[in-house]
Every structure is written in C-alpha cells, then in structure tokens.
Design goal:
single chain, Serine Threonine Protein Phosphatase 5, Tetratricopeptide repeat, 484 residues, Arc Repressor Mutant, subunit A, 2 domains, disordered N terminus, mainly alpha
Length: 484
Amino acid sequence: MRYIYLVILLSGTLQAQLSSKETMGSAEKKSIELATQAIELFKKNDLKKSTELLFEAKEIAETTRNYELTAKIYGSIAHQYIQLKLNDKAKEYLQKAITEVNKLPENDTKITLKGLSYLDLGNIFFDEKKYEAANSNYKRSLKQFQLLSRPEPSVYHYRRSLYNIGRSFSFMKKNDSAEFYLNKALAVKDLKNRELKLYIYNALAQVYSDRGFTQRAVDSLKVALLDPQLQDAELKTEIYNNLAKNYRLQGNYKEYFAYNEKYINATESVKEKELSAINTAINAEQKDFRSVISRADQNYRRILSISAVLAIIFIGAIIYLILKRKREIKAFELMTSKLTALPSETTEKKIPSQPKDKTDYIPSPVETEILSRLEKFEASDKYINPKLNIANLAVQLATNTSYLSDVINKYKGKNFNTYINGLRIRYICDKIYNNPDYQKYKISYLAEECGFTSHSAFTTVFKNTTGISPSIFLREAAKKRTAN
C-alpha cells in the first residue's frame, strides 16, 4: 500500500494549528494551507498537483523556525518520492525530516514522527526487496506507537505498522507470521481510515494464494474490489492483477482474461500519473536549485561546476539516445531477420532434455499429431481471431485443453497466451515489413488486424515480443523502404 503516513498526521494537526491564528505567523499559516490542499489532492490520486503544492509549502516552511511543521512537510515529500519509487530522493528528505524531529522536545509528537520515519524507511527497504530490513523497521515503528501516552490519535499508524509487518513476512514466505499480523491489523478498529482494511484483504489474499487456497484469495479480493471505500488507483491495479493470477491458477480463463485486461489498462493509467508527478517533483527541485544559484552568482567556481555537471548530463543524454537508437535498430533487424528466414529456421520445437512429469502421460503418437496440426494452424492465420481461446483451439485440433497446453509448453516453450500472442505479433510485423500500406495505419487498427481487442494490450505484448514499440517498428520499416 502507498498511503500518506506523514501526510495523514499532518492533516490532523494542521487544522488544529490553523485555529490558533493569533499564535502563528503568516508564513506558517500559508504553508499549512498549501499542505492541507496537497493532502486532499493526494487522496484524489492527483499526484502531480499534490507534489507541486507540497514543494510550495516546503519553501515557505523553511523560512520559519517551526521544526514540527518543517519535519512533517519534509516527511510528506519523502513519502511522495517513495510513492514514485525514487528512493534516493526519499532518503534525502527523510533524513531532513529526522534532523528536524530531533530538535523537538520529548513528547508524543516526537515519538509519533519517529515511528513514521521508521515506517517510511521500511517502505524504502521493501521497494528494494530487502524484506528482512523492512520488517525490522516496521517493528521499530510499532514499538514507537506503543510508547504513546495517548495512542488514540495514532491508531491508524499502529494498525499500519501491523499491516506492514504482516506483508513483509508474506514476501519472506513466512505465511504463519504474515497471517497472524494481518489478522491483528484487521481486528483494530479505525473508523476514520477505512480504506486500510482493503489493503489488508489484498495482502491476506496473497497469503491464501501462496498456500493454494485460491478461492479464499478470490473471495478476499472481491470484498476489497466491491467496497465503496476503494479509491486508490494503485491498489485497484494490484487487486486486478491478483484476481487474474488466482483465476488462472483455477483454470477459469474467462475471468482471467477479463481481469488481466483490466490490470493492463489500469497499469498504464497509474504510470501516466506517476510520470506526471515525477516531472512536477523534478521541476520543483530545479526551482530550488535556481534559487540557490541566484543567491550565489558571485561564486564563479560554483557556476563552473554546475555548468560542467549540466554538460555531463547533456553528453550522457546524447550517449543514451545513441545507444537507445542502436538497440532499437538491432531489435528491428532481429525481428525482420526472423520474417525473412526459412520456415524451418523459425519454427519453434523446443524438446527438453528432461521432459516434465506432467507430459509423460501423453502418448507419443498423440504428441506428434498435435504438433502436426499446430503447424497447419500456424500456417492458416486462424490465430488472428480475437475470440480464439485454448478451448476452441483444442476443438479445432481434435484434442483436449490439457494435452494442447502441455504440448505447447513442452515444444514451444511458452504458455498458450504467449504462444498465440507471438504468432499474432509475427503476423502483423510481416504485414508491416512487406506491405507498405500497413505502415500508414494507426496502431489501433494494427491491433485489431492481428486479433487484439485493445490498443494497450497490443502495445505491451508487441514490446515484450520484439523489444521495441509498434511505433518504432513502423518508423524503422518506413526508413528501410525509403532506403531501398
């Protein structure tokens, strides 16, 4: 879960501070108002505007001597960076927050902020897949919240610590401990932050799935998905993905395809918002940087150093673009070489040296017949039918889905969906490469032409198969045609 720890705490105390206007300077009030707006925008998944306002609040807070306010805003920015998976910047701002926290007197506020710092440190380690270190920091945060003289205002953070401990245990494959802490978190009553229980259901579903209880996992995920409190786009994306995985394990391909499609579409939406927020954060950082330079423009050596850094970045960017271009050309040439090769050179017949036990029961003559029919199927272009699935293909080949799935896995080295998608991508690449008219078509039309029901799914599969996007392949094909 990616929810606001420091920002949620900020929300509770900001309103109280706003009510004490006579004891507060105008700069503090303005900083608090901006941070409060940032909180509301974050809850609405507007990461771009939320990040922008937090940096404005930071600039103003830094002109005051309100260590608590500055610490909370630094911590909130650190959490935004964690949300965007920019862990180095998150650590930088988290360290700034800790420095401000250490200036505070010993009281519940200081204890709470320390606990929140451990939570975010745990999140950084979790993102880096250092689950034991994450688990250790989450336990430290739990101990801090247990020290509070008035625990009620921080019940969310206490519950969040339990959830994080359970989730990290899950990724450590310690499912007994994971389930214990997750159920403990579920039992904590918190009427103000109800969305947290949806993250707990999602984590419990992973534990159930790991144990082979796929229906319990599906039930937990459905409870979370149908809850009106579900607002977080990233959580919804995770739930779609987990539902698709569990339905696939159950062999329910209809539901698997439906939720996998939702997952792909949701992933693109989340990434777009994150990229927009990253750009906002970078622009805000650059604004701070320019401010420093303007105050130090008498220092020639600093300006010279900055110019050198920018030159290195510029040169690095050029080198990166050149290498990227070479990789794209190489990927294009590799794909087109497959298109122009003899069929015998491109037909995949992967025969493992040690066949899996699950295919031992298929009689050899049956395997041979299925392979022969698959070759005819590949030559027929029937795979571009968007309604094609393993069940109706098995009927076409006069076999059953189990035999067909195992033969494809054994001899093609792929599952059914990857195998069919590979044929579709090869088909459309051949059309683009050999038929100039196809180089003028929109990507959405190309997707439909080769059997995909959505532009986004086609783009994702195309890039995974060829190493480049459809637009780059179209560009290179057009250049090749012009050169010839």
